[in-house]
TrEMBL record:
InterPro entries: p53-like_TF_DNA-bd_sf (IPR008967), p53/RUNT-type_TF_DNA-bd_sf (IPR012346), p53_DNA-bd (IPR011615), p53_tumour_suppressor (IPR002117)
Subcellular location as annotated: Nucleus
Family label: Belongs to the p53 family.
Residue intervals of the p53 DNA-binding domain: 58-249
Binding-site positions, Zn(2+): 132, 135, 198, 202
Domain of life: Eukaryota
Residues covered by region (Disordered): 242-267
BP GO annotations: apoptotic process
Species this protein is from: Diabrotica balteata
Gene Ontology MF terms: DNA-binding transcription factor activity, RNA polymerase II-specific; metal ion binding; RNA polymerase II cis-regulatory region sequence-specific DNA binding
GO cellular component annotations of the record: nucleus
Cofactor: Zn(2+)
Basic and acidic residues biased stretches: 242-252
Protein's name according to its UniProt entry: p53 DNA-binding domain-containing protein
Amino acid sequence: MSFQSDVLSPEDQKFLYEEVAGVPLQLFDDEPTILLTDFPKNEDILKIPKPVTTVLSNEEYEGPFNFEVDIIPNGSKNGWFFSPTLNKVYMDIKAPFPIDFKVKQRPLHPLFIRVTPMYSSPQFAQECVSRCVNHEYAEATTSPHIMAHIRPHIIRCQNQSAFYIGDKTNNERLSIIIPLSFPQMGTNSIREMFEFTCKNSCPVPGMNRRSIEVIFTLEDSESQIYGRKTLNVRICSCPKRDKEKEEADDSGKTQPPKGKKRKLDKPAKKIVSNNQDLREFTIQIPIAGKHNIGHVLKYCHDLMAGEVARHSGNGVETTAPYTNALSKISTMIKDLNE
């Protein structure tokens, strides 16, 4: 074996030849090709509960592991206020809010906390709670690092291991799945920080002044529920004022004396003003985007449904115009989705 080089001197060439003589030149050993599909997917590493489409129960249930959700009452300096009497928290948008979770004698398999907002009124309980258009699309510009599937969620968790699941276009409820960790040394609870990204007063497809409650469920990877707690929430600009007002309204509700029978007076039928306009109108307005047509129809649907509920005690002649309009709007929504 010999070689010639225009760069190395004959002495250097001889030295290198002697160093490598008889040694096969192998820079790399053959290794099997590693494909992307060879790596385990996230769901293979940690299986999490699936999205839900049904109306969630709000009946509290401690379950076999004594599931507890604790609210720290002192929030006067943190942008939020908690009312124990109403089991309700009042806060401004994007105000960090701590919640402590406790379990006892937990099993060996992983547990999760599912956090799901739901409308308090049975009339709207089947609807998915999501953000308004203004806040959702503004975040796409101001915080482009936030993934698109997270933006519709009104609740955010500061836990980096949290999963945001659900798709409102498939009628799936928007939930946060948090792997339940173990308490730190010297404590018996796990604290998670939350914040809300939309207000109750935001227009459709937001909450549109409807009350909400947050359902906390303790689950395993198969969505088996081991505990459930609820918390009423109001996201507003003046949490202290709204808290004091609602507590005053609640305390003003007088209760009959115990031990005495009282006759229940039949509620008087509401008198409908003669100048109330019950005529049906049809309008044509230009709208860009099929999805925006759905938002407008949804708002009209909720508006007519609210009128039916408010006038339910005034007779069929009063509710009939609203019921007829509601039926026609429902048909339009169905045709739009087909």
